[in-house]
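Hi R.,

Here's the chain you asked about this morning:
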Amino acid sequence: MRLLAAVMALGLAAMLAAPPAAANPFEAMTVEEREAFRAELRAYLLENPEVLEEAIAVLEERRAQLQAEADIALVTANAEALFEDAGSWVGGNPEGDITVVEFIDYRCGYCRRAYQEVEELVATDGNIRFIIKEFPILGPQSLTASQLAVAALQTGGPDAYKRVHDALMTWPGDIGPAAVARIVADAGLDPEAMAVAMESDAVNQVIEANHALAMRLRITGTPTFVIGDEMVRGYLPLAGMQAQIAAIRAASEDG
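And the predicted structure, written out as tokens:
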């Protein structure tokens, strides 16, 4: 049985590796030989279905590796827009050895779920440079929230942005005029200046630039993280972020 598996594996590997112009190995077989081979292959797979699971696992691993390599290339090609964008809020340790970028939407449940975990990561690690990219994709309220946050940054500076960001991430209801007025007041910002800023070209250009960057990075959902030169598409628990950062640091030390 092991010999049969080896023969079939070699045959299939040869067929898969052969260039398009190469001769089909089945062409050298008679009709009876082809039918016998197919029958043997089918019988073996039915008797050993775990072989299919192993093959699928290998395929998925290879696809994940290719995706990771492609993502690193995308991050490298867009490094300046990701890490040096003057329109985005930067927190944590400005001299940190690892930069974490998060694309967020304030109406995204998983962004809200990740919020406290990212806060804990930045606070407990002490060596993380954290950048937020406003990426509203879940409708008008998402856009309003991002406009409010960016306007706070441009009008009141980084501390004002953080107060507004924290309020938006924990706001319990709709983000309409009443919510905006309450958040602006609680943040100690001038409501008239904020109203003008929210509708300004300067604010909307930041959001549009983030959408263009996300398109180049093939980001379609939130949260999406860039940790070092690696991309994480989707929610990542605190332990996962810590493990990934530890791996990046270890690799840097080994290199």
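The beta strands are 89-92, 98-104, 128-134, 224-227, 230-233.

Let me know if you need anything else.
M.
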